[in-house]
Design a protein that fits this description.
Elements: E1 6-10, E2 21-22, E3 27-28, E4 37-41, E5 50-56, H1 62-70, E6 74-79, E7 83-88, E8 99-103, E9 126-132, H2 138-148, E10 162-167, H3 169-176, E11 181-186, E12 199-200, E13 204-206, E14 209-210, E15 229-235, H4 244-259, E16 264-268, E17 277-283, E18 301-304, E19 318-321, H5 334-345, E20 361-362, H6 370-380, E21 409-412, E22 423-431, E23 437-443, E24 448-452, E25 458-464, E26 468-478, E27 483-492, E28 506-511, E29 516-519, E30 523-531, E31 536-543, E32 548-550, E33 556-563, E34 567-577, E35 582-591
Parallel strand pairs: 13-18, 15-16, 15-17, 17-19, 29-35
Antiparallel strand pairs: 1-4, 2-3, 5-7, 5-8, 6-7, 9-10, 9-11, 12-20, 13-14, 18-19, 21-22, 22-25, 23-24, 23-26, 26-27, 28-30, 30-33, 31-32, 31-34, 34-35
Helix pairs in contact: 4-5
Length: 592
């Protein structure tokens, strides 16, 4: 069959002007593709089955996924802009409701531009990763290798749909002609060495699927009026393997590394569901999204693409696998992983260059490369003042040499013992850096806030406390993206007087029982209880497919007819009290 020529149509339906699909090899102007074009493949493909790109005029949602499922197709990856890579048992053409354009990847689009500069051995062979579409099973991958006469290496560290091959460019080009192959890009030689400490990343995610490796990201968070993207961050549950202050400091150091090079600034937030806010948490197993973690397994962490591809409640959120053996300065290093995931949080996809932080495999101790910095600056611009050139001084006047600002410094004064008090006053001084400056604070119990810095550098704040240990982290930020951090441990004594209504907000799902359930129905109903806080006033719900609503009742609540997609659905139910405090519970429903 190797000599057989298969003509593959690149089909186009009616399109909107300006529509584009962004690949690493090129940008497809789908708005101008009114005529069907063809490409030739000299390699066989599965009879009748094919991977195709389906583009909409909006971010694909639950209705679009349902329409695909109804037509027998399933999404395997997300492709900017507004497109899905789908697998279908037929060439769909214009059969999908709401689709503006449907086509295929040209084999040339499956070959990374970085391959042309990859180092070749003495035989002209290039070490490369062959990425298969996520639905392609091992037997099909082996069949491709056999047809092309190549041998795949599969070190334990590799993602399930990756294989390493050492082959000349002609063989890589032949592999790219197989429908099962999604993309081919340079392999890090370290992946094949004994004792290799690399670990795979779960990728930049959307609720419709992961962003494809062959896709090119051209948009991130929108810039504010000062041409800076101001993002909030909130810490959720942290790993217990290190003090909370240490974990927060390592993650803040990673966020600040991106702020040092691009016009994106992270500031402490108070509500994880607020717009433009990144929730950073450690979680185990099923944890409220469609991508559960395994126990000390393949995936260390994953992060969700910014809006509008993902809704605000999860856009930009960073989740780290709590069951991993986290370390500071060793494997598995919190900073190294957070540095990579923070790149995803600002909208960067995986790089093809093994020397980059954003390469799909983490390596401890890496720092931002020129490629990483360039990708961030392409979205947000270089950090600091406007890059517009200043007016030249008169010829007779010598311009003074620029004065470098002193290093930003933060002092946290000794904290007075609070006794049984529910709050404590903290204060200190900020010096150096570039004005204006702000001080932000956060405790490991979920309280956070900010304090204004006076012209003298003095600042003060009132911090709520829980009974027992409270770890306070105070961070000073200046307008040049400088950062300084101090921590303090504060212990509040147990009160001998009962405090009425002091229990935190809590919610539980009692019907159906279990955290993972299966059903053949298109909908499901939930029930449970909620209590605590200042009195629960509302119970809300949201699915990973984008549906949401409000339940009936509060102390004992019910939610009827929640819509389900075929496959895995994660449903988050949240209880909110009169003061806005909230808690959530999740259930994973698998629709057969």
């Amino acid at each position: 069959m190797n000599g057989r020529v298969i003509v593959v149509g690149l089909f186009a339906t009616a399109v909107l002007l300006g529509q584009e699909i962004h690949l690493k090899t090129r940008t497809l102007e789908t708005g101008s593709l009114s005529q069907a074009t063809t490409v030739q493949r000299s390699r066989p493909q599965r009879e009748g089955s094919i991977h195709q790109i389906v583009q909409f005029d909006h971010a694909p949602g639950v209705d679009d996924l349902n329409a695909l499922a109804s037509s027998g197709a399933r999404a395997v990856a997300m492709v900017p802009d507004n497109a899905l890579m789908v697998f279908a048992p037929y060439r769909m053409s214009a059969r999908v409701a709401g689709a503006n354009w449907i086509g295929e990847l040209d084999p040339a689009d499956k070959l990374s531009p970085k391959l042309s500069g990859a180092a070749a051995g003495t035989t002209g062979e290039i070490l490369a990763i062959v990425e298969f579409h996520g639905d392609v099973q091992l037997a099909a991958r082996e069949a491709v290798a056999a047809l092309e006469g190549v041998k795949f290496q599969r070190p334990a560290v590799l993602l399930a749909n990756h294989a390493i091959v050492n082959a000349p460019m002609e063989k890589l080009q032949a592999l790219a002609e197989h429908d099962e192959v999604a993309y081919i890009f340079p392999a890090d030689p370290a992946l094949t060495t004994a004792g290799n400490d690399s670990m795979p990343c779960g990728g930049l995610l959307t609720l419709a699927g992961p962003i494809a490796q062959y896709a090119n990201i051209v948009t991130g968070w929108s810039l504010d009026s000062d041409n800076v993207a101001h993002l909030g961050y909130v810490f959720g549950t942290l790993t217990s393997k290190f003090p909370a202050a240490t974990v927060q400091s390592e993650i803040l150091r990673a966020l600040n590394a991106w702020s040092q090079v691009a016009n994106v600034v992270f500031q402490v937030g108070t509500d994880p569901d607020a717009s433009r806010t990144v929730l950073i948490k450690f979680a185990s197993g099923s944890h409220g999204d469609p991508y559960p973690f395994d126990v000390q397994g393949e995936i260390l962490a994953h992060t969700f693409y910014p809006v509008p591809v993902n809704p605000e409640s999860i856009a930009g959120d960073m989740h780290l696998n709590a069951d991993e053996n986290w370390n500071v300065g060793g494997d598995i290093d919190i900073y190294s992983v957070a540095l990579h995931e923070a790149g995803h949080a600002i909208g960067l996809t995986h790089s093809d260059n093994p020397g980059d932080v954003m390469y799909p495999y983490y390596r401890r101790g890496m720092q931002l490369s020129a490629n990483d910095i360039g990708a961030a600056q392409e979205l947000y611009g270089a950090a600091g003042p406007s890059s517009a050139p200043a007016a030249a001084p008169p010829a007779a006047i010598t311009a003074p040499a620029p004065v470098s600002p002193s290093v930003l410094s933060l002092i946290l004064n000794p904290v007075t013992h609070p006794g049984q008090a529910a709050q404590v006053s903290v204060s200190g001084t900020v010096s150096g850096g570039v004005a204006p400056m702000v001080v932000e604070w956060q405790t490991d119990q979920g309280y956070s806030g900010s304090a204004a810095v006076a012209a003298s550098g003095l600042w003060s704040a009132t911090v709520p406390l829980v009974t027992g240990s409270n770890m306070l982290t105070v961070t000073a930020l200046d307008s040049a993206h400088g950062m300084a951090t101090q921590t303090a441990s504060i212990t509040r004594m147990q009160s001998t007087t009962p405090v009425v209504g002091s229990a935190p907000v809590s919610i539980s799902i009692t019907t159906p029982a279990g955290t993972v359930v299966s059903t053949s129905s298109a909908t499901i109903s939930l029930g449970g209880t909620a209590s605590g806080g200042s009195g629960v006033t509302q119970v809300t719900w949201q699915t990973s497919g984008g549906a949401s609503g409000t339940g009936l009742g509060v102390d004992r609540w019910t939610i009827a007819n929640i819509p389900l997609l075929i496959g895995t659905n994660t449903i988050i139910v949240r209880a909110i009290d009169a003061k806005g405090a909230n808690a959530w519970a999740a259930i994973v429903v698998v629709r057969q």
